Amino acid sequence: MAAPSYTTDLVDWIADADTAAWGELTGAIAGGAPDEVDTESALQGTNAVSQATNTTSLFSMCRILAGSVTLATNNVFLVWHGHGVATSLLSYASGGLRIAVATTLADWKAWAVGGNDVPPFPYGKWVNNPVDPTIAGEYTNGTPPAALTFFGVGSMGQLGAAIAKGQPHVVDIIRYGRAEARINGGETDNFAVFSGFAAANDATSTRWGLIQATDGGYLWKGLMTLGYTSAVDFRDSNKTIFIQDTRKVYSSFNKVEIRQASSRVDWTGITFTCLSPSTTASKGALEMIDAADVNIESCNFIDMDTFIFLSTATINGSVFRRTGQITTGGATLTGCTIDRNTALSAVLVSSPANAALISGCAFTSDGTGHGLEITGDPDNMTLTDNTWTGYAATDGSTGNEAVYVNTTAGSMNLTISGGTIPSVRAAAGVTVTVIAGAVSASVNVKDLDGANIEAARVFVKAATGGPFPFDVTVTIVNSGTTATVTHTTHAMATNDKVAISGASLDANNGIFIITKIDANSYSYTMGSSPGSSPTGTIKSNFVVLSGLTDSSGNITMSRVFPSDQPITGWARKASVDDPPFYKQSAISGSVDSGTGFSATALLTLDD
Amino acid sequence: MAITINWATKVINIPQDYLTDLGGGVYELDVNTFRLDLRDIEDNEDGIPFQYTHTHNTEVTLGGLTLSRVVEIIAPYTITFEDGQYAVNLVGANNNIADRTNVNQVSVRSSNSAGMVTVNSGSGLTAEQHAQLMKTLTVAKFLGLK
Hints:
By secondary structure, chain A is mainly β. Chain A has four domains: 11-177, Sandwich (Jelly Rolls), CATH 2.60.120; 179-305, no CATH class; 325-428, no CATH class; 439-603, Elongation Factor Tu (Ef-tu), domain 3 (Beta Barrel), CATH 2.40.30. Helix content of chain A is 2%, strand content 46%. Chain B has three helices and 13 strands; from the N terminus they run ββββαβββββββαββα.
């Protein structure tokens, strides 16, 4: 990958080299004559415009160009301006500092953007304010310009006490665009980082006002595109990003977009915090547009807007405090804090399987809304080690239940393994059976060198002495591919697995997922129709684990065990298509009803 | 065709075309390949709930000699060769296949030896020489010369 690049889409509207005459807007002429060649006050480049403000009446400076500028949809214009004695500015509500657009000096509209009560004032002098011109202005004169085409732009203000000295009202470069920080590239020892963009942003020749270094972190606004036209490798840690109070923009103005499937974004200890959530129009959102490799570790997102992740994202130990909705898109959330989310559903997932990827998370309600909303089709699932605080205490439909199963009609089991038991709301036509007190049974398969073995097949069944069937003699009646088993007090539930052996018809033998009929019978589906019912001494065993290990050599199940369950089984790995061959390794022990079961199976080569 | 296991009857079925045709009605079963295929079946979704079919001890080299591998089919598993008038030579390992074979028209011939070794050099027979010798013996037997 290439070295990182940091660019922007901003276009100069009133450039640094522009020293043409500025005027004063009609009705705001109390200030001094604009000084278009103020090289002493320049923030960007070498030139600024300034005026004296020895008045408590409205003052203004506006540049009317010969040709018009038309902004595209979602474009804003950004003005560097300010006042050297900001303690004297009126408040925001009184229009202390404003931005104006005009057709002529007599035909204008303006928006309040600052005052002595809006940072960086009263301590600072300069501020870069964006304005979405489609928002109605608070102040007008003559026939104000409509739509997105303007001839002039400038700054206005009003003081509570006149300032006799100097030319404290200043304006520097004015630009327009989406206000997009475009970041591409990044490579080993030279990853894309926040400081990299800030360095580009803060150069005297640029001063884009997008991501600028500030005390304790970076002040950000606009669209931050990670992977604009090519992949980005953005890895940064322990930084704080302050989201600017932007009051005259649309809600999605401040946003991080992650693009390009080959991009990688690793954030560790990054904090995004919206500085003024009660006043800003855009609190800052994050959206993965493409399925990039995103790894978020121990980060904080405070008072922000929505988050949209994809399945390639992993979020560990991070805090989402008072944010908007988090759409996981199949992302894995582990050990996160979802605190007082402001949405009707704090976390939205598209399937029960995606919900199961949320574990070890602490959900705290703000008094309304759900913690987790599950959509898609109903399916049995397990929530592991999540805690739910401040939600409705009982199941119902108040809108404040911890979990909202909003799937299509059907039934599903919601197994709770660890954590606290959530209250549940089920959508119309959905039946949710909450199974609480579940524990995990897991086996890790390794070779003698300690390396995990993927795709090893593990089979663990009940042994004698537990609550579930061990070698119980049953009878079976077949009908087509459906086998109905008569099994007295089997104690199992739908979607449990049984191992059937000893049936005279081979189709009846094997491991099957059952559908519980009643306490004494269940059914399962065979791979083929044997045409008759089996005879022989047919045995049924409850299956604890059955399947292949994952890339970490693990296989896990979760279930409620009413009492301790002795188990026996084995792990095998012997595929002609995937050598080497291993000898079988035995597994035995007991699933503790309170703590579960965990074991390691060591396989030796069978060459 | 591949070997199969009927889990209801615990019968391992070996089709004739699984064997190597040596000609003259004589076939050969490579016991090492056979036991690997059994392991493959034991490892699949159908086979995993059932006990393994055999034990296996690999070749061991001692003092310059290599003791042959040993494959033992475990009860209750039995073996059925596809029925027909042919003979099967078991090669590649000491084994108890003949003991676990369900009787039909197939003649199963084991070459187990208490001191069986795998000869890697010197005057031992090559695999081709062994096959030729077995073929000659079979023809001689057929002609009543032995």
